[in-house]
Amino acid sequence: MDAASEAAEVFAPSSPEFVADPYPAYARLREAGRAHYSAPTDQWLIPHHADVSALLRDRRLGRTYLHRFTHEEFGRRPPPPEHEPFHVLNDNGMLDLEPPTHPRIRRLVSKAFTPRTVEQLRPYVEELADELARDLVADGGGDLVARVAEPLPVAVIAEMLGIPESDRALLRPWSAAICGMYELNPPAATAARAVHASLEFSSYLRELIAARREKPGEDLISGLIAAYEDGESLSEQEMISTCVLLLNAGHEATVNATVNGWHALFRNPAQLAALRADPAALVPTAVEELMRYDTPLQLFERWVLDDIEIDGVTIPRGAELALLFGSANHDPAAFDRPADLDLTRRDNPHISFSAGIHYCIGAPLARIELTASLRALLRRAPSLRLAADPPRTPNFVIRGFKELLVKP
Q1: Judging by DSSP bridges, how do beta strands 36-38 and 43-46 pair with one another?
Q2: 35-39, 172-176, 231-235, 387-391 — which is least confidently predicted?
């Protein structure tokens, strides 16, 4: 067995040991080469920062292939018919579309999801983050996931969409069920939950969109209904898929960036002490470094639409690439001392928000949320500490913790 094949074997996303700490395996992958075929996942693993960054912008690749090929022409099996509700919902979101459909939807969404709209949310985000941190301290601590990391971004995106407070408890379970399909080789039970959640969430949003058509408000759904350009608007399904995407992408990464970040701080007490000593100076760079250090989204996939060559290896049309964000964010070719948490790091080209046409449209809002919760917890709980060893979720792609018990 050659070095590249041996290295590919260390990529074991179903292994609890690998999920607990994939970064040593990533180092082996980077040392062994630029592209490695993984038979268990039927993917080509891309571990280097320069390659991942370039391939995210390479139009020979796509999040989908259906704009150019049928499943059969591409050498792939169509998804099972029973999964159709999930795919109708997922495949009409701009994250899984390619030109010309993708830029049309992104332009229309951008008309409603403007920098001004996001900036207007800042006082709400900061007030809510402070309230959540204050309540956590008042109760003598608790689970940082359930008490701060989850409720903040869910409430913010629900506020943007105009979802009534009485309905907001529905959102996180729907999102968690749907996002289970983004793991590698999800089991049948996970797919069934995703399908059920897709049907329920779509039905709910269809009713909400109908209500906003009758009585528009200042919320994002009303903005999406009104968005119009060159005689085109969003279809109902595109609006539904966009709302679900904004919720899922708009809080899953923020939740996990928050808890992964605090876990990293607890494991690096000198860095945490420096942050507490001068939060005004360090919070901006700390937010970026914490997203890099333990990346909330470890992998992003691309289909090969036309043959490409990487380091002398031809990867044919029909193959799938696994762009390893977690590995790219620890590549010593892009980061000085990448294994070290350095909250003062200014040269920080992390790709946690992706790149190219699929760069995260919600990145500015995510930064506001992460900054607000970090500042609030530093202010309200200046001695915050771990209360128990935290259990990780069993997921690899979306990396986080089941809970993070803390004491103020």
Answers
A1: antiparallel
A2: 231-235
Tens-digit pLDDT profile for residues 293-328: 999 999 999 999 999 999 999 999 999 999 999 999
How many CB atoms lie under 10 A from the CB of residue 140? Answer: 9
Q: Which of 390, 181, 365 lies closest to 265 in space, CA to CA? A: 390
- In one letter, which amino acid is 368? I
* Residue 337, CB-side half-sphere exposure with 13 Å CA sphere: 8
What lies within 8 Å, CB to CB, of 251 at 6+ separation is 150, 153, 154, 156, 157, 172, 175
Q: Which residues are within 8 A (CB) of 237 and not within 5 positions of it... i.e. 6 or more apart?
A: 88, 92
Q: Which two tokens stand for residue 204?
A: 């709910």
Total structural domains in the chain? 1
Query: Quick count: other Cβ atoms within 10 Å of Cβ 206?
Result: 14
Quick one: which of 274, 391, 403, 408 has its CA closest to 344?
274
User: How far are the Cα atoms of 34, 309, 331 from residue 51, in angstroms, in the given order?
Assistant: 8, 11, 11
Domain that holds residue 138: 3-407
Is the dihedral angle over the CA atoms 74, 77, 81, 86 positive or is it negative? negative
Instruction: Give all strands (DSSP E) within 198-352, no chain letters.
Output: 299-304, 308-310, 313-315, 320-324
Q: Is 150 helix (H, G, I), strand (E, B) or coil?
A: coil
Predicted confidence at residue 230, as pLDDT, reads 67
Provide the token pair at 369.
């949320």
Tell the burial category of 394 from Cβ atoms under 10 Å away from its Cβ (0-12, 13-18, 19+).
exposed
Alpha carbon separation from 275 to 31, 296, 347, 374, 375 (Å, rounded): 33, 21, 18, 10, 10
What is the CATH classification number for the domain harbouring 101?
1.10.630.10
Instruction: Between 5 and 145, name the one with better pLDDT.
Output: 145
Q: Could you tell me if 270 and 193 are in contact, meaning their C-beta atoms sit under 8 angstroms apart? A: no
Question: Using CA atoms, how far apart are residues 216 and 114, in angstroms rounded to an integer?
Answer: 18
Residue 195 contacts by C-beta under 8 Å, 6 or more apart in sequence?
A: 82, 83, 85, 86
- DSSP one-letter string for 62-129: ES-STTT--TTTTT-PPPPGGGHHHHHHHHTSGGG--TTHHHHHHHHHHHHS-HHHHHHTHHHHHHHH
Q: Position 233: which residue type?
A: S
**Percentage of residues in the chain with pLDDT exceeding 70?**
98
Please report, in angstroms and rounded to a whole number, the separation of the first and last CA atoms in the chain: 52
